[in-house]
Amino acid sequence: MEVEKDVYIKQYSSDEVDDDGRIKRTGNVVTATTHIITVVVGAGVLALAWAIAQLGWLAGISVMIIFSSISIYTYNLIADCYRYPDSVNGKRNYTYMQAVHSYLGGTMHVFCGLVQYGKLAGITVGYTITSSTSMVAIKKLICFHKNGHGAYCKFSNNPYMIGFGVLQILLSQIPNFHKLTLLSTIAAITSFGYALIGSGLSLAVVVSGKGETTHLFGTKVGPELSGEDKIWRILSALGNIALACSYATVVYDIMDTLKSYPSERIQMRKANVFGIITMTILFLLCGCFGYAAFGDHTPGNILTGFGFYEPFWLVAIGNVCIIIHMVGAYQVLAQPLFRIVEMGANMMWPRSDFINNERKHKIGSLTFNVNLFRLIWRTIFVIMATVIAMAMPFFNEFLALLGAFGFWPLIVFFPVQMHISQKQINRFSLKWCVLQLLSFVCFLISVAAAVGATHGISKNITKYKLFRYKQ
User: Fold this and answer.
1) At what angle do helices 158-171 and 106-147 cross, to 10 degrees?
2) How many whole angstroms separate alpha carbon 361 and alpha carbon 339?
3) What are the tens digits of pLDDT across the range 428-445?
């Protein structure tokens, strides 16, 4: 880490850096809340109506509120562990992995890195799928509007994934997370746009009296749905909700943008509360109104699943908002992955010009730096994510698998164990037992959701030819 510190000292004067030699931070509660909303209010919010349809009113709303409450508690534990050993004056942990290493040791540090950065890579694939799905949905909307709802309007997602990938190659040259505030703000605003459009259109259906029949316990078992499939859908729905509550993969990257006074811990605790309450309100609006509008036939995504055809221009605007949000959210989630790889390369080869040298270039009045290692490796990463998305474009099941993969370890297990270590809570004391029970219950939920998502993906793969998917 000293290598990176030296680099900062060389690039900036002493009045521009914090006491640890890094560039002085200017973030606050508002910017942190913006980043949280950008990450959590993703297109997955539009899948929550489908999730509530599988769980029903009682379980669906209860699970959302319970998951949100758990998230506020555990994210506050994460905020408390930003510094070590003292949460106010201790040494900063620049990444989630560093915090786990400080409090729990090397083995847990490796496990955390595998889960965290594996999930980040997976989410970029998911966002590529989501953006292309919305692009195709716009084209289909125009086709249906011109030719009628019964017309054949199927199009390949692949050209749109490639276009999205090209754009992300360019945006991936943004050097670090600190430069993402504008992009993140635009993404956060558009996330409100499509969430409100989706819930508004659903509410209009309900108010007009055209809403479908709903049930306290969700979709009914019958000719169209076997008992076995009902169970699989419930498990997948849990995974969708779990993913929707997750920003643990970037929580320390967000904290690392906060100015040092008041303490990062205090600012992040406020941002956690504001961000998760906002998230929960939007989730309940989209999920409840969507289920009330479509009942047992709720689509996997209320804007791209063609629950709505008209007004086609408003549905199209909603999908444009999704695309813009995916552009920004991709970078908010990819930058921590870029950062950890580049920090590792810097530490292993501190004297390499290829890895460390920034070359200044000027086009007209615009001046920018180009780092060859950053240019090449980030480009390769985006290409790989795009190819994987083209090979497996299953929206709901993929979201559920990612949610299950990261929910327990990142949102519950590591925060609980770090808190126990930090506060030196005695083994088998009442608080220790309650915390371990919470962790175990969430572990069971993660396993169940992963099994359900894997089952859904395996069913789709048997019907699908690689790179030939049409929506």
Assistant:
1) 130
2) 22
3) 999 999 999 999 999 988
**3 state SS for 207-255:** HCCCCCCCCCCCCCCECCECHHHHHHHHHHHHHHHHHHCCCHHHHHHHH
- CATH topology classification for 25-362+373-462: Hydantoin permease (1.10.4160)
Distance CA 124, CA 418 (A): 28
- 390 with 158: CB under 8 angstroms? yes
Token pair listed for 152: 């054949």
d(CA 399, CA 324): 19
Tokens of 445: 């939920």
How many Å apart are CA 384 and CA 112, to the nearest integer? 23
For residue 60, count other CB atoms closer than 10 A to its CB.
Answer: 25
1, 114, 115, 185, 423 from 249: Cα distances, Å: 20, 11, 9, 19, 23
Phi/psi at 305 (nearest 5 deg)? Answer: -90, 5
Q: Pairing mode, if any, of strands 83-84 and 91-92?
A: antiparallel
C-alpha 138/C-alpha 298 separation (Å) is: 19
What's the one-letter identity of residue 135?
M
The pairing of strands 366-370 and 359-363 is antiparallel
Roughly what angle, to the nearest 10 degrees, separates helices 264-294 and 48-80? 170
Q: Are 286 and 64 in contact (CB under 8 A)?
A: no
| Contact present, 29 and 267 (Cβ < 8 Å) | yes
Residue 27 Rama label (left phi>0; alpha psi -120 to 50; beta): beta
Judge whether 364 and 416 are in contact, CB under 8 Å: no
Q: Report pLDDT digits (tens) over 203-216.
A: 998 998 888 889 88
Average pLDDT over residues 136-156: 85
For the entire predicted model, the pTM comes to 0.81
Q: How far apart, in whole angstroms, are the C-alpha atoms of residue 276 and residue 40?
A: 8
DSSP states along 120-155: HHHHHHHHHHHHHHHHHHHHHHHHHHHH-TTS----
User: Helices 372-391 and 312-348 meet at what angle, rounded to 10?
Assistant: 130
CA separation for the pair 195, 282 (Å, rounded)? 7
- Token digits of residue 112: 């955390």
Domain range annotation of the chain = 25-362+373-462
Residue 131, amino acid: S
Write the burial class of residue 348 (CB in 10 Å: 0-12 exposed, 13-18 middle, 19+ buried).
exposed
Going by their DSSP bridges, the two strands 91-92 and 359-363 should be labelled as unpaired
